[in-house]
Amino acid sequence: xxxxxxxxxxxxxxxxxxxxxxxxxxxxxxxxxxxxxxxxxxxxxxxxxxxxxxxxxxxxxxxxxxxxxxxxxxxxxxxxxxxxxxxxxxxxxxxxxxxxxxxxxxxxxxxxxxxxxxxxxxxxxxxxxxxxxxxxxxxxxxxxxxxxxxxxxxxxxxxxxxxxxxxxxxxxxxxxxxxxxxxxxxxxxxxxxxxxxxxxxxxxxxxxxxxxxxxxxxxxxxxxxxxxxxxxxxxxxxxxxxxxxxxxxxxxxxxxxxxxxxxxxxxxxxxxxxxxxxxxxxxxxxxxxxxxxxxxxxxxxxxxxxxxxxxxxxxxxxxxxxxxxxxxxxxxxxxxxxxxxxxxxxxxxxxxxxxxxxxxxxxxxxxxxxxxxxxxxxxxxxxxxxxxxxxxxxxxxxxxxxxxxxxxxxxxxxxxxxxxxxxxxxxxxxxxxxxxxxxxxxxxxxxxxxxxxxxxxxxxxxxxxxxxxxxxxxxxxxxxxxxxxxxxxxxxxxxxxxxxxxxxxxxxxxxxxxxxxxxxxxxxxxxxxxxxxxxxxxxxxxxxxxxxxxxxxxxxxxxxxxxxxxxxxxxxxxxxxxxxxxxxxxxxxxxxxxxxxxxxxxxxxxxxxxxxxxxxxxxxxxxxxxxxxxxxxxxxxxxxxxxxxxxxxxxxxxxxxxxxxxxxxxxxxxxxxxxxxxxxxxxxxxxxxxxxxxxxxxxxxxxxxxxxxxxxxxxxxxxxxxxxxxxxxxxxxxxxxxxxxxxxxxxxxxxxxxxxxxxxxxxxxxxxxxxxxxxxxxxxxxxxxxxxxxxxxxxxxxxxxxxxxxxxxxxxxxxxxxxxxxxxxxxxxxxxxxxxxxxxxxxxxxxxxxxxxxxxxxxxxxxxxxxxxxxxxxxxxxxxxxxxxxxxxxxxxxxxxxxxxxxxxxxxxxxxxxxxxxxxxxxxxxxxxxxxxxxxxxxxxxxxxxxxxxxxxxxxxxxxxx
Length: 962
Fold this sequence. Notes:
- It holds the Pfam family DUF748.
- One of its GO terms (biological process) is regulation of protein targeting to membrane.
- InterPro entries: AsmA-related (IPR052894), DUF748 (IPR008023).
- The protein is α+β, with helices and mostly antiparallel strands.
- Among the domains are: 1-125 and 144-187, no CATH class; 214-319, no CATH class; 620-627 and 656-850, no CATH class; 864-959, CATH 3.30.1330.60.
- Strand 20 (410-415) and strand 21 (420-424) form a beta hairpin.
């Protein structure tokens, strides 16, 4: 009993000593030893206000812990540490259990005095250490533990850096962290919640759960109003720009970490925003962003995928500058010495890695862009840029973009050095699909729309404008070769002006299609088909005063190829255009419609131009000569210009021409001359024929044969052979015109003859032969039943009695058959075929009037001397055989020409004869013709006046008035 009592007292004494030492002795010793050991190890001075330990409940509390530097400034501080142990119960289950850990009022004062040197890292005093090799054959398993609750309350971390000229300070304050069920016992899933404030503006919240073995963590990070500048200011030496203090980031990020098998990390965002971002460099604003709003972002380390959904960049402004130091955006980050080595090592380490997949879904951007090139004195300004893409996929160097659209409001480019201005008001560019594989680019279904495009080269005095440009591409491929298909280009109100060359071109509507365009590695170009359709074009050349208008132009070029200097074209088709050509000086106008031109197999290369065959079908061409008001000095100037052009052409090396046969079918030619008192117009229709190959070799020749209908009932045929190099070397052309209505030539007869034509038919057989510049021409002119009309006043008309001339020239069938031969040397500068023919015609008419017996005698094979007088010997008046020969020939003429009469006067030689014999001679002639030759009395006219100079009686030819 006594032993039991002693044992009880002993146990109670031990318990009392345990409690007493636990409450008083242990805290005292612990405080002293902790301070002593820390002071020996650390360079700081340790302070502990109080340590409290409850040996019954195993609660530990430390208050007022701090580490002070030499200036008595607190480096590390802890207001209170409370630990609630649950060892007894946990030992039974072979694990270490702590119910609660409360750390309140932690304070860390982190100071960076030099680059990468922090005060907390150098708290431990330097000591000599001995390396020991520890061979651990078996890895012992640590005892499991469990902390039911850990709380960090009112924690503050103050970070100060003195590495820059200006002190940098970052404060993490009001840190509150709670974690439940943290430990390895039963591998509980711990839940945790962290909140703190970064400086004065940023709130950070982290909530989630984690496991220790294997390490698994998940949760959500919420960052509100993170000031970007507060982070970047940590090391300003890295950046070559200034950021505004208002720029901030808002982020809600979900994370999931799993190390069960490998290290797997998955991140996805609910909110990611960058707001009010402004960048300055050298006191100039270079970039501005109102808002970057990313609705969803995910990072999948296991599958190596990055996904971005609904990315919106609002009100982005970029001011790019190029000067002596380069482009401003290339030096935003200051390059470190070892940066290139790091990049190279990174590239090497990533060589065998699986490629990442990066996806962008629904990306939108609106921006403004300025580019100032101070080196080349140029500027580019693009306003209201809008970029949209429905999907972007990136795998390694493969990029796929779907539903891309770029739109701009105003674009201006100004090159002051080269005096070049380019601008447009609206641009809209869309691509259905873009594939980029390394350096290979493929684009499908692209459209480009541009409004009010202006291109002006002030130096060259060239200006191009168009109200709208509309370009469509079904496919575009860029690699070693450039290929595109089904290009459709439409231009509205296109204007091209070249003031240096005094030419202009304009088109209200231009439409162009290009199929299968290819630019290969050798810079060869090929196109399967190019088509200009439904296009109206106006071309004006003030140097040559030509104004050319085309309407509804349809031009198709097939199988075009350009290799080195050689151009080949399979076929050129020009269909149904309306072409108007006007010479502003001469007022010459040429109109063409219903034109179908077919050129086959065209080849153009060095010193060679060849067309295999040309077909011209159904053209209707009108040539109109307006009233010529061109001044003499203008004509001389044009002659000088022409001589200068001819000299330039002569100086050029001749190109071999080989133009295959030209076939003409159903051509209509209208000719109108308004230079005449009465406008002239004629039509040659159904022109059909061919011209053989035209070559410019020395001895080459070309044959031609063309047939047509003149006006309603006339026929035309042109045949011959020419030397295409120079018609002066060889020309043998025959032109036949039959059954041509003379009435249509009234405008010309009115001007040059002063008379209209009532009726008549014309036949021409014109043959022109030129050999070695010597011309021999035969002009056979047959006029049937010509009837003149009214007189017309004309300053150019010849003053001749045309009625008499026509009567003299016509035979019994009222036909005038004229032959007007022409000869001469075409090299003579004063030689003119038209002038010579006209002169021969006038001479013929004049001769008919002034020497009618010569003309009319030639019609009956009589000489003029045989019929122009009746000869008598002195003092004779009887009609002898001598007089009969002359009078019989006169009778033949009068019987054939009932519209003519012979007039004569009595005549005698007053020196040797008496007047009586003169009358007798005249009466005998009258009697012989009327009575013996049965000549109408009207055709024999005896004049009253008596001639006294000769015994011969001279005869005169007169027209009988109807």
